[in-house]
Design goal:
Strand content: 25-35%
Order of helices and strands: EEEHEEEEEHEHEHEHEHEHEHHEHE
Number of helices: 10
Shape: globular
Radius of gyration: 20 Å
Helix content: 25-40%
Structural class: alpha/beta
Bound molecules: NADP nicotinamide-adenine-dinucleotide phosphate
């Protein structure tokens, strides 16, 4: 038996319960990982509220780091005792230990500690596929401006630093002046406090009226339409999250009216559906971290039992950078 944070029904943070669960032995293609640290992500909130539905009861969590404890038949890239980390589509990481498909699990370089790893897999792999593979038709070149919302969050601060390393001018947005300063200290060229300023007008001003080639929008409902207004003709809106709520249905006609725009709604787990792609992307993340181009900030730590407080803080926009649960 092992401790885990489980929900029996969808709802607020109060539905998170610390329970004992039976983990069992790994089946073919699976491993059992004993967690040292578990990442917290906004997707965990969507899964708790039922915006994204899974069968119940459900142990939450999609990201963690730890040690391989048992290996199922057919798994060749991992062995008992390996230090590992993962981002997995099937929740279950808010726990002391779990079973999961080995294809999502990668070995951790010695120089990366467990907390850092737990804070950077799901978020770092996301920034990797966004900035390197979710591109406007004309591509991105050093010197180009991009807009990245919620720039002081977990994904956001990694994006600020990675964009700087790629030579991109990242125009961030964030909900307070302090968060904007943090984003700028981490590589954003500009950061707009969207609670106080009209971010469309500011983006137009910063880009001499031209607009940007791509907007990475994880805020969703509150920003979607105005994000389109930040784009130049043929620009791309990558709508990759819904922290303010799901985006309302829209008519494709608005994309014509605003300049032959493109919209995509990507998810990490399409990119990491094979072991080879997961490994290749993880190596790209490890490289920028080991080079020091991207520093992973763990700004909030909670005991596993305090997962409900972690969710309250995340939803109240009180957090910056990454948060971890410690089993
Ligand atoms: N599609 C994918 O593959 C993928 C993968 C990973 C993450 N994501 C998405 O990326 C986003 C960031 O994830 P994260 O885990 O790093 O979270 P995070 O950015 O650390 O936290 C979310 C941030 O969103 C902003 N926000 C704006 N409106 C909000 C509202 N009404 N309620 C709560 N927050 C609001 C807040 O920043 P401000 O106060 O600065 O506004 C808040 O801190 C999430 O939307 C997540 O779903 C998508």
């Amino acid at each position: 038996m092992t401790k885990a944070i489980r929900i029996q029904r969808y709802g607020g943070p109060e539905v998170l319960e610390l329970v004992d669960v039976d983990v069992g032995e790994p089946g073919p293609g699976e491993v059992r990982v004993r967690h040292k640290a578990c990442g917290i992500n906004f997707i965990d909130v969507y899964q708790r509220t039922g915006l994204y539905q899974n069968p119940l009861p459900l142990v939450l969590g999609g990201e963690a780091a730890g040690v391989v404890e048992a290996v199922g038949a057919g798994v060749t890239h991992l062995a008992v005792g390996d230090r590992v980390a993962y981002a997995a589509p099937r929740p279950g990481s808010y726990s002391e230990a779990r079973l999961l498909a080995a294809l999502h699990v990668v070995k951790l370089p010695d120089a990366i500690d467990f907390e850092t790893a737990a804070a950077m897999m799901l978020k770092g792999l996301t920034v990797d596929y966004l900035l390197r593979r979710t591109l406007p038709v004309e591509g991105l070149a050093p010197g180009d401006c991009i807009v990245f919302h919620a720039a002081a969050g977990g994904v956001g601060l990694i994006a600020c630093q990675w964009a700087r390393a790629l030579g991109l001018n990242l125009i961030g947005t964030a909900g307070s002046d302090e968060k904007c300063e943090l984003a700028k200290a981490n590589g954003a060229t500009h950061c707009i406090n969207y609670n106080r300023e009209d971010f469309v007008a500011r983006v137009r001003e910063i880009t001499d009226g031209k607009g940007v080639k791509v907007v990475y929008d994880s805020v969703g409902k509150d920003t979607f339409e105005r994000s389109l207004d930040c784009l130049r003709p043929f620009g791309l809106l990558a709508s990759f999250g819904n922290s303010s709520g799901a985006v309302a249905p829209f008519s494709p006609g608005i994309l014509a009216a605003k300049g032959s725009l493109y919209v995509t709604r990507p998810t990490l787990f399409t990119h990491t559906s094979s072991r080879e792609r997961t490994q290749a992307m993880a190596e790209e993340v490890f490289e920028v971290v080991l080079k020091g181009d991207v520093k992973i900030r763990v700004d909030q730590r909670y005991p596993l039992a305090d997962a409900a407080q972690a969710h309250r803080d995340l939803e109240a926009r009180k957090t910056t950078g990454s948060s971890v649960l410690l089993p």
